[in-house]
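Model it.
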Amino acid sequence: MNIHEFQAKDLLRRYGVPVPNGKVALTPQEAKAAAAELGGRCVVKAQIHAGGRGKAGGVKLAASPEEAESAAKEMLGKKLVTHQTGPEGREVRQVLVEQSVNIERELYLGMVLDRGKSRVAVIGSSEGGVEIEEVAAAHPEKILKALIDPAIGLQPFQCRGLAYALELPKEHVSKLVAMMQALYRAFDDCDCSIAEINPLILTREGGVMALDAKMNFDANALFRHQEILALRDINEEDPREVEASRHDLSYISLNGNIACMVNGAGLAMATMDIIKQYGGEPANFLDVGGGANEEKVATAFKILLADDRVRGVLINIFGGIMRCDVLAQGVVDAARDLNVSLPLVVRMQGTNVDQGKKILADSGLAIISAETMAEAAEKIVAAVRQF
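Modeled.
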């Protein structure tokens, strides 16, 4: 789960990370009032769940409350298109009006789970204010990394090592060490998957500060963090993904035209791969899980067909915990209810597969059966091309 920059800064402030003073505004008039409270000179920042806002015009400097009002008026209610939003962009519903600060130097600081090492990694770079992926591609030598032992946490000597490697002035080292420790406490306590400060700045007055902040959370741990779950902004999410989450379905929208319904994340990834191998493009990742019932399958099917780009559906189920007859009945009910005319290929194996195939065969619907994954992928790609 993602949250907005202003929400991430509020969380980090509680853990002792220095952040600029700021207020959220929903209208240009509120932005003007906030700027006046901050002394006039400020920065107006669009609040959407995407990076690259500055390049897209979503970050504006203002020298007065009137300029802040004008900047907010330009942003609010408009679609902001960045390299992370896609061409459709994201509507700006709120802005962060923040105090202006004197920047001496910009750095990068982040923490992320290194799945290969099964450790949290703290990452630092002298190239702050730039997309870290760009830095890693162009200047990998400027990416500094240390792994954190979960038994003892982030150690001061690791923080000092990164600070010295970043060539910080001595008077800033202890401040950066304290910020790293605070960021790690926030990461660990809140069950983050990513905590990023970009840029982390050194101010001309001798301080360190998180000028921007991004935090993502492990959705599987949110039952422990109701206060964080309350920060979720469904306006920033795909409506189909929101609907899927309400029914405990794992759904992610993609850019293709062949919808996929699968049980099991590994099988779903393999299904998407084999569709691409046969020249097709998957429209989504959808894992209905092992314990799905007829109602859940029917709901999943409806979510798939809510995507206007879909021109065909591939259902690939291995019936272990989930029974093939349950899946088949759910598919038949949903197909009839929605008057489905798109090509539909079903490949089932496992528990009650014969009963499932009989339900499909007796349905009277134009369902294409397949025995193997390869056959299923080949058939759906061909059917979509002819549709």
